[in-house]
Amino acid sequence: MMKNSMRGALAALLASFGLAAASAQVPDLDPREDEQAELPVLPEQETVPVAASGLIDRADLESWLDGFMPYALAQGDIAGAVVTVVADGEILLSRGFGYADVATRTPIDPETTLFRPGSVSKLVTWTAVMQLVESGQIDLDADINTYLDFEVTGVERPITMRHLLTHTPGWGEQVRALIMEDPERFQPLDEYVRNNIPAAVYPAGEMPAYSNYGTALAGYVVARVSGQSFDDYVDEHILAPLGMEYSTLRQPLPDHLEGLMSSGYMRASDGEGRDFEIVTPAPAGSMSASGNDMARFMIAHLNNGEGLFSPETAELMYTSEDRKLPGVNAMLLGFYQQNRNGHRIIGHGGDTTLFHSNLHLYLDHGVGLYISMNSTGRGGATGRIRQALFEQFTDRYFPVELEELPTLETAEEHGRMLVGNYVISRRAHQNFVAATALLSQPSVTMNDDHEISLSILTDASGTPLRFREVEPFVWQQVNGVERLSARLNDNGEVEMFSAAFFSPFMMFTPVEWWRNGTLLMPLAGIAAGALLLTVLFWPVRAIVRWRFKKPFALSGRQAMAYRLSNLGALLPLLHAGGWLWLVTHMMSELSRLDGRMDGMIVLMQFLSVLPVAALLIALWNTFIVWSGGASWFAKLWSLVLVLSTLVMIWFLAAGGFFSFGLTY
């Protein structure tokens, strides 16, 4: 149960606030359920070509969605969704499925019902940035401090707006005050960016590591440069010109839109909607928008930024690649490459706790696809549905014949170089949230056919995908189009790798040996077991002596050492257990990151003295036992206590549990 709970903590980091976008491919790390929602298995269908006019046949599209969405939502326990498709500058289809409110059975109106697209909001922020780049008010390659009234620092070199657009400022994960339900705790944007500067851990420009703070900072620069509030700028320069009347990034909602908001659910079967979520780094994910308004936004970008900026700026935004690995997708200026079947596709994903969305633009065809769901559902359902919708839509209307590439002779050698445990580049490095990177590490394995698998890349049934090496350090999915790619360092070792889905914004890097869960977790389990046995047998021995009227055989310092050693065995267990409960509790509901748990965090940081005290007690007990006439078992067990306490301290240090402060 603890393992599954901690997997959930990682999921909350990686997916629940897509202010992450990775959730579509990490359904096995769902924070709330072990059971997995199954998507509808549709009969084999012939691919349907794009019509001669360039438009997808509406009747076919509608029929196809009717066969997919209702069943998928029901299986995933999701209340409702909106799906919008645009083509040739028009809304081809915009449909609501399910309910905006389960209790009143209110249907979804794609024109007026508001959903929360989460990190898809970032595209609005990046659009605003590119408008100011076009006007010469922002230089993509200038030190970002040029535009700030406080200072942020990078590793080795200054951080620039280009780094923010490509998620390469080099910052670690920052989750404090990410999302909340209490408006009283909401920080204005200027306060948030000043008070939550993440630690710089990578050289700026080198490592993709998705950053909500980076987008919030970019939004603050927009406000500083334009002389308007961020919300006012977006209203005047993006929403109004595009006619997006049923959209806003303001929180809470303006009065005229409040009654149009879809309820948000953990599960549709709960029957009761949750409170409106407030995203503190607002430019990173605060948007509320109808399906048709998102269609207007897609059409503008598909028409080379018409109504937003010049075609030259659009081309700069859509084609400036920050490519870290060969053969997989790259990060553009704000957009992800999502190329599939040889077609040029860009987009973004997004999640709040309750709403889950994806947006895809097929640049060479003038087609856009948007989906947003108003429930988290069960078993990672929203991630599976979004990814299946994108893949099946693309394969149906923009198909490709799979080319059977031969497996390279180096497959075994290169595959073995990749096998092992990894950490994601987007993670906390220096505080207790780092425990999520310790307790659930993605792993690469290789089968007898020299095919490799990444544990968090699975198909709709939860089975890990298999990949064959088709180019040096580039692997192709068996019977599929997904790809993996790796890069070596100067020593000929794997420096980083990623899958095409993740590669624009996140890398996998080999975990240090002392943080490798394959080594540390079994040792920590054995150590905790030894300490727990010591604690449990203390009262058992006392009861046995009382029952058989046996006197306590020890006295003086030996008696004191015995009693203290049993008490000392309890201290690391209390400290580790307290932290694990606290991290699991906080990360399972992201609204708990709003500061309400700060008192518990400070208490646990103060209690860091417990495992240190336990080690001193264990060492003193060993000295007393070995200097007296104790039995061989007592001497051996005294060493076991020392080693077990050291392992627990190692575990706590690797998990970031000896950190101090309230920046996390």
TrEMBL record:
<dbReference type="InterPro" id="IPR050491">
    <property type="entry name" value="AmpC-like"/>
</dbReference>
<keyword id="KW-0378">Hydrolase</keyword>
<feature type="domain" description="Beta-lactamase-related">
    <location>
        <begin position="73"/>
        <end position="380"/>
    </location>
</feature>
<keyword id="KW-0732">Signal</keyword>
<protein>
    <submittedName>
        <fullName>Serine hydrolase domain-containing protein</fullName>
        <ecNumber>3.-.-.-</ecNumber>
    </submittedName>
</protein>
<dbReference type="InterPro" id="IPR012338">
    <property type="entry name" value="Beta-lactam/transpept-like"/>
</dbReference>
<dbReference type="Pfam" id="PF00144">
    <property type="entry name" value="Beta-lactamase"/>
</dbReference>
<feature type="signal peptide">
    <location>
        <begin position="1"/>
        <end position="24"/>
    </location>
</feature>
<keyword id="KW-1133">Transmembrane helix</keyword>
<feature type="transmembrane region" description="Helical">
    <location>
        <begin position="602"/>
        <end position="624"/>
    </location>
</feature>
<keyword id="KW-0812">Transmembrane</keyword>
<feature type="transmembrane region" description="Helical">
    <location>
        <begin position="561"/>
        <end position="582"/>
    </location>
</feature>
<feature type="transmembrane region" description="Helical">
    <location>
        <begin position="636"/>
        <end position="660"/>
    </location>
</feature>
<keyword id="KW-0472">Membrane</keyword>
<dbReference type="InterPro" id="IPR001466">
    <property type="entry name" value="Beta-lactam-related"/>
</dbReference>
<feature type="transmembrane region" description="Helical">
    <location>
        <begin position="519"/>
        <end position="540"/>
    </location>
</feature>
<dbReference type="GO" id="GO:0016787">
    <property type="term" value="F:hydrolase activity"/>
</dbReference>
